[in-house]
Amino acid sequence: MNKREKVVAVMQKNPDWHLPRVASQVGCSESYVHLVRKEVKEAEYNAAKAELEAESAAQEHKTPVLGMKLEKDAPQEHKTSVLVAATGLSAEVETSYLETNDLPPAPVEVVTRSSILSTARSYITRDRQADHGDAEDNFSRIAGYWSLHTGVTLTATDVAVMMALLKVARIKQNPQHVDNWVDGAGYFACGGEIANQ
Q1: Helices (H), the chain
Q2: Percent of the residues in the chain that have a pLDDT greater than 90, as a whole number
Q3: CA-CA distances (angstroms) from residue 196 to 24, 56, 57, 89, 154?
Q4: Fold topology of 1-57
Q5: Nearest-angstrom CA–CA distance, 35 and 29
Q6: 170 with 177: CB under 8 angstroms?
Q7: Which of 175, 163, 170, 169 is nearest to 128 (CA)?
Q8: Which of 1, 20, 143, 159 has its CB surrounded by the most CB atoms within 10 Å?
Q9: Confidence class of residue 132 from pLDDT cuts 50, 70 and 90?
Q10: Interior/surface letters 38-56, b for 16+ CB within 10 angstroms, e for the rest
Q11: At residue 155, does pLDDT exceed 90?
Q12: Contact 146, 159 (CB under 8 A)
């Protein structure tokens, strides 16, 4: 078994382990583990995306899964908002999914705590991670930029909390907009993981 295979085996057996622990177990550098983890995640994402594309092609003539319309498609009296058919996704997110031919989690008819958490889970474990990389790395990078800008030393955990607070502020303006609840749950989950590494 080569070094890469050892890293993959250790990560599969211990999915909660972080880079230093995996590197120590295998006897390699953290940067090598990070590279292998990134390759594995990209391969998993590409496989899931290919599966979705195949399903999408098979259902090409069926009614779209998502029930949203952008403002340009809305009747005049709705031009200040987006028509949403209880999916919990914004029209911008829907457009992104449709443009990349990548379907989001199945839409929910009723918004429940379970649907909010499961949607947040899918975002932070597949969708956002595939687009933006590892949350700890990304939040640490953001903390560095924010620290330079504010002159105050911030951490990755601070970023998670402040992004969640941004969602809280948006919830204050529009509590029925499900995206903010979903994103807030996702930021808290990422922050909790980062804080306890």
Answers
A1: 3-13, 19-26, 30-58, 91-99, 113-122, 128-132, 135-150, 156-173, 178-195
A2: 20
A3: 19, 39, 42, 30, 17
A4: Arc Repressor Mutant, subunit A (1.10.10)
A5: 10
A6: yes
A7: 163
A8: 159
A9: low
A10: eeebeeebeeebeebeeee
A11: yes
A12: yes
Token representation of residue 61: 């003539």
Which residues, in sequence order, are CB contacts of 66 under 8 Å at separation 6+? 85, 87, 89, 94, 97, 98, 104, 107
The whole-model pTM stands at: 0.45
Question: pLDDT higher for 154 or 114?
Answer: 154
Residue in this structure with the two tokens 């595939």, named with its chain if needed: 130
Structure tokens at 133: 């990389």
Residues forming a β-bridge with 69: 83
Q: What is the distance between the alpha carbons of residues 186 and 194, in angstroms, rounded to a whole number?
A: 12
Angular region, 101: left φ>0, alpha ψ -120 to 50, beta rest:
left
Residue 18 amino acid letter: H
